[in-house]
Each structure stands twice: as C-alpha cells, then as structure tokens.
Specification:
By secondary structure, the chain is α/β, with parallel strands linked by helices. Helix content is about 45%, strand content about 15%. The protein is globular and about 45 Å long. The protein binds NADP nicotinamide-adenine-dinucleotide phosphate.
C-alpha cells in the first residue's frame, strides 16, 4: 500500500515549469486542451489566426507565462520564422490541434480543397514538428501530440480529403516516433470521435440527417471537449514516458464496431 501510494503521488500530470506550443488554440478542442494544460502548471504559446480569441484565452488561463502568436498555417514557409521569433527558451513539447474540414462527396472532390485540408491537418503539423523538435527548442526529452481523428482509421461519406489528411498525419507521427525515440521525444496521436465544436457544427456543413447518423454510431454517445482534453493531458504528460507511436481513440466506442 505504501509503495502504491508513492507511485500515485508521483503520477500527477504535473506540467509545472514546462512550456508547450499549441496550434488551433483559438477555438473548440484547442481552447479546452489549453485550459487543462494550464490548470496543471504548463505555460503555453497559443497559436491560431484569430488573435482576439487567443488574447482572451491567454488572459483567462490559470498560471503564468502564457503568450499568443497569430499564425496562419496555410503557408508552411512562414511557420519556422513565426515560431522561432515567438520562442525565447526551450520547450517541453507541443500539440498540433489546428484542423480544417470540408465535406465533399468524391464526385465533387477537387485538388484545391483536398490540398487545403492536407496542408492544415498534415503538412503544417509536420512542419511545426520539424521546427519545434530542433535541438535548440526541444533538447532531449519531450512530448508531441497530434490531434488526428477516428477518420484516420475509418471512412465516412464526403470525408475523402479529411480522412486522407488524418491518415497521413497518423502515419507521419509513427515515423517521427521512431526517429525521435533516441532523443526520448515521444510522438502520439489522439483520435476523437464526434464532439460538438465550431468545426463539426459549422465548418463541416453536415446535414441534420448526416449529423444524426454520426451521433448514432457512437455506442456511448458523443463526446465533450473536456473528455478529449483529459486524454490529451494523459498523452502529453511526463508521467507517461513509455507511450510513443500510438493513436488513442476517444470515441465512445465508434471504432470498436
Ligand atoms: N470536433 C470533433 O468532433 C473532432 C473530431 C475529431 C478530430 N477533431 C480535430 O480536432 C482539432 C480541433 O477541432 P475543433 O473541433 O476544435 O475545430 P474548431 O473549433 O473549428 O478549431 C479549429 C482550430 O484550427 C485552427 N485553424 C484552422 N485553420 C487554420 C489555419 N489556416 N491556420 C492556423 N490555424 C487554423 C482554428 O484557428 P483560427 O480559426 O483562429 O485560425 C481553430 O483554432 C482538429 O484537428 C480536428 O480535425 C475534431
């Protein structure tokens, strides 16, 4: 009992003194992940395009040292300069939560909207990883988390490009996990099922019938941003230093069927 109490006392998901970069912090899941990390002591560099939302979030978060950076991920070539100028000291890790979705059946699929989703969801994530895992920003040890989706594993009508982008992100994260393991940098994905956010309620432009069909496929019902944030904390946590190269589905049983 004494030993177990000792172990539990050590496993506290304590991020005190750790700085993390968070993309997609201006809205939805990113905002709630920011809150969960800040509550556990992390200092955050919050990024997104909506600078008003980022500023309001930075001011409302518990703890100190939070800053915001307005960063459009459309152009991979801008990412390194922007992040390098915003960072002042090494970081513990980052979470790429920014994402873009456009629902289009295959017959209406075109390269431009496909590329946009590939760019924000996958290519920008890879570029952010390249920049932030440089030794000057992430010396040995650290944690990387990509917010993927159940659609990295299963399909849905109209989500050809979105599925492709999240599948690409998952595959890339596994390669990164293996490459960065010698430096004790862990790389994981978190794959949520349906959670009501601006993306699912507005951007995805799903019909009510499509929404209901998606909801019906979750045996435990749909999720909340807070549940996703708890899982993000778990994967990012310094306590979980033997988990890398994996994707955790948090989907109320969607992919179990
Ligand atoms: N909600 C769900 O059910 C669900 C399920 C599975 C996976 N996900 C994934 O979870 C992540 C967050 O989604 P969400 O539901 O929270 O959606 P959301 O509320 O629409 O948030 C999307 C975030 O991505 C950022 N973003 C989009 N385009 C960007 C760009 N060009 N440059 C920089 N940032 C950009 C947005 O910031 P700005 O608008 O300020 O740029 C916003 O902070 C996404 O990767 C999504 O694919 C969501």
């Amino acid at each position: 009992v004494k030993f177990l109490k000792g172990v539990l006392a050590v496993l506290t998901d304590d991020f005190t003194g750790k700085t993390l970069v968070l993309t997609g912090a201006s809205s939805g899941l990113g905002q709630v992940i920011a809150q969960a990390l800040a509550e556990r002591g992390a200092s955050l560099l919050l990024t997104g395009r909506n600078s008003d939302a980022l500023e309001a979030l930075a001011e409302s978060l518990p703890g100190s040292g939070h800053r915001q950076l307005s960063l459009d991920l459309h152009k991979s070539t801008d990412i390194e300069a922007a992040l390098s100028s915003a960072l002042t000291a090494p970081i513990y890790g980052f979470c790429h939560c920014a994402g873009s979705v456009q629902t289009r059946p295959l017959k209406l699929s075109r390269p431009a909207p496909c590329l946009e989703q590939m760019q924000i969801n996958a290519l920008a994530g890879i570029e952010v990883a390249r920049v932030l895992t440089q030794k000057q920003w992430m010396p040995d040890q650290g944690s990387v988390l990509f917010i993927s989706s159940i659609y990295s594993q299963v399909g849905a009508p109209g989500q050809i490009a979105y599925c492709a982008s999240k599948g690409a992100l998952l595959a890339a994260s596994k390669a990164m996990a293996v490459e960065l393991a010698p430096r004790q940098i862990r790389v994981n994905c978190l794959a949520p099922g349906f959670v009501a956010t601006a993306m699912t309620l507005q951007s995805a432009k799903l019909t009510e019938a499509q929404l209901n069909a998606i909801k019906d496929k979750h045996p435990l019902g749909t999720g909340t941003p807070e549940q996703v944030a708890r899982a993000a904390v778990f994967l990012l946590s310094p306590d979980n230093h033997w988990i890398t190269g994996t994707e955790l589905c948090i989907d109320g049983g969607y992919t179990a069927q």
